[in-house]
Amino acid sequence: MSMKQRVLTASILLAVTGTTATALVTAQHYRDAGNASAQAGSNAANASAKTAAVAHANAHSSGFALAPTVSGATPSAQLAKHPAVARAREQLLAQKLHGTGAQADREAIDAEQYLPRDVVVEADGSEHVRFNRDYQGLPVIGGDLVTHMKDGLLTSVSKTMDLKLGQGGAKAPKLSVAQAVTDAGVHFAGRFMDKPTSRVVYFAQDNQPKLAYEVTFRGLNKAERPVHDMIYVDADNGALLGRDSKIYSAEAAQGEGFTITRGKVAISTSKVGAEESDGRGAGYLLRDDKRGGGTLHNTGGTVVDLYFGGGDFTAPPMFDKDNVWGNEQMSNIERTGVEAHYGVSKTWDYYKKLYDRVGIFGDSKGVESFVNVTFSIFHFIDAGGTNAFWDGEAKRMVYGNGDYGISNPVVALDVAGHEMSHGVTQATSNLAYAGDAGGLNEATSDIHGTLVEFFDNSPKDPPDYLIGENVMLDGTPLRYMFKPSLDVAEDGSGSFDCYPAGGFTDEDPHYTSGVGNHFFYLLAEGQKVPKSHRKTLLPADLVCNGATGLKGITPNTAGQIWYRANTLYLTSQSSYPQAREATQTAAQDLVDKGLLKASVVKSVACAWEAVNVSLPEGSTGLRCKS
Q: Which Pfam family is one of those matched by this entry (predicted)?
């Protein structure tokens, strides 16, 4: 694999510091925490729920808050009894029954179940309820939706498509489980780590959900990286319907260069006695009790075998006697831990201060992080350490220790922001990891990783629109938001600048994220070439449609819009055109609340058109030239 092919991956939310908005927005947020990591459409009947307190934004620093804190656990049934959920269900049913006369249609509607996963009630009374959907007791993959209500009336519904349940496809699986696993296995291009598992679902496709098998594989891909794939095959004939992934990894390109450094920083640790230190005596752990007890574990360079279930590894928390961690040597293990710990804490603060989101899942809990990992296969094949990933199933972050002469430990600030943001996406829109949705998933993590840099605003690592620029020793970025195709490899593979006709299907989400990254840069900064590339690029090189004079609205304002779109309007299978509509709707919301100028909506439309993304067919949304 070439240097340029090994690119950074991950998933979701943006920042809002220094925004021009002055009004304070508060909201109440209720969510089914037990379903935060579930595949869209999975049954949440037995999941636990979290109820939330009112969110309070810091008006002096950000002036804006959308994702409030969540505290306290209650049964999932209590979330289902929330008045907003009842109102949303009633309005959905009325909408579906309107004009419906056929008995078959009514029976199909009766067989549907709407399972609440998230409720947001804004200060102005607007209610947003995110539902997963079951049909005849089976999850509908891609059937998730978000209702938007004001004054008790349904104003709109965000969904990937209009589903006609109960029409077409098999009524019961004709394929046996064994045959379904065999048929799905043809499309798993990797080595197995565990025995495949399966379940019967409805898979949403072309508005006609089909009865399908969801077959889950864990193993290694062709690049010898961990994969956790769900492959969907038709329960009637075994034909491939789609796929998704639950491992969001960050792989780096080979190179040489500089170290990651911010000098000496203050970090939060935990003082412990000998009984808490695994026999190492009294001292300190890299455990942040100020931020939900998130703990940094040191594998000490332990080799994690990716083939033999390496995902189950454990390691003790990083420990120090005097609470003075590391030294100036890049090879120092404690220094690596401090860098990762700092990145996690900054990302936590970013979400809390700008959105009142306390923890990735809004439950005030920190997550586990593992550093100094080296990867192998069959115990003897070296898979290197230039890798990092968010493990959506285990809800933890894993950071590789780098490769000698090639890369630093993979613990850069934007990497931490990127990986933690995958978890936020998992808890909100739950974007899939294939097709357009996969690109949107990766782009949102790139955007958040970048905005964490803006939040930190360190003079030793000034914020920019380069992804993972501190990973490789030569300083070569993994991705370029202003001109994504700059990461193209010798074989021609690389990120997309422009949205292709027909959209994306099975392309690498790390590459399809280029469209979302490109849009965000143009929206935030306009048609402005960064200083680092003014000798090689012209403003005309930054757009796909020949547009001129695009003006930026600032990264913070762009972040407000993306965050709202992602948390309130996107669903698991959203396409790029639907993301355009979602961001324009989000921008208009903020205009209506008096937080943004009306011209911002047109800026959003023009930035999307500059990367060749149109509105969905039939949409009445604003066009750039209208």
A: FTP
Per-residue pLDDT for 259 more than 80? Answer: no
CB 525 within 8 A of CB 555: yes
Q: Name the CA radius of gyration of the chain, rounded.
A: 24
State the pairing for strand pair 287-288/368-377. unpaired
Strands (E) located in 363-458:
368-377, 381-384, 387-391, 396-400
The mean of the pLDDT values for the chain is: 78
> 12 pLDDT band (50/70/90 cuts)?
very low
| Nearest Cα residue to 415 out of 252, 299, 532 | 252
Question: Are the C-beta atoms of 311 and 375 separated by less than 8 Å?
Answer: no
Q: What is the mean pLDDT of residues 160-165?
A: 66
pLDDT digits (tens, 9 = 90+) for 382-407: 556 777 888 888 888 988 888 878 88
DSSP code at position 168: S
Residue 96 to residue 106: CA distance in whole angstroms: 9
CA angle 161, 107, 202 (to 5 degrees): 45
Task: Please identify, in words, the CATH class of the domain defined by 177-245.
Answer: alpha beta
| Rounded (10°) CA dihedral 485, 489, 495, 499 | 70
Which residues on neighbouring strands pair with residue 23, listed in sequence order?
none
The tokens of 330 are what?
A: 């890049």
In the block, residue with structure tokens 């990254």: 517
Query: Which of 29, 228, 448, 510 is the catalytic position?
Result: 510
- CA–CA separation, 83 vs 69, rounded Å? 20
Q: Is 379 a catalytic residue?
A: no
- Tell me if 51 sits within 8 A of 488, measured CB to CB: no
Q: Among 112, 122, 419, 453, which one carries the catalytic annotation?
A: 419
Q: Which fold does the domain 250-408 belong to in CATH?
A: Elastase; domain 1 (3.10.170)
* CATH of 428-625 among 3.90.226.10, 1.10.390.10, 2.40.340.10, 3.40.50.1000: 1.10.390.10
For residue 492, what pLDDT is reported? 83
All CATH 3.10.170.10 domain ranges in the chain, comma separated: 250-408
Which residues lie below 8 Å from residue 150, measured CB to CB, with a gap of 6+?
Answer: 124, 125, 126, 127
Q: What is the pLDDT of residues 330-350, one digit of tens each?
A: 567 788 888 898 899 999 999
Q: Is 202 helix (H, G, I), strand (E, B) or coil?
A: strand
CA 581 – CA 608 distance, rounded (Å): 10
Q: Distance from CA of residue 304 to its chain's centroid?
A: 25
Length of the chain: 626
pTM over 0.70: yes
Query: In a 3-state reduction of DSSP, which class is residue 573?
Result: coil
> At 519, which amino acid appears?
F
pLDDT for residue 226: 66
**Active-site residue, 187 included:** no
Residue extent(s) of CATH 3.10.450.490 domains in the chain: 82-159
Q: Which two tokens stand for residue 109?
A: 């509607």
How many other C-beta atoms are found inside a 10 Å radius of the C-beta of residue 338? 24
| CATH code for residues 82-159 | 3.10.450.490
- Please list, in sequence order, all residues whose beta carbon lies within 8 angstroms of the beta carbon of residue 473, skipping any fewer than 6 positions away: 255, 256, 257, 258, 405, 406, 407, 408
Residue-wise pLDDT for 187-215, tens only, equals 887 777 778 899 999 988 666 778 999 99
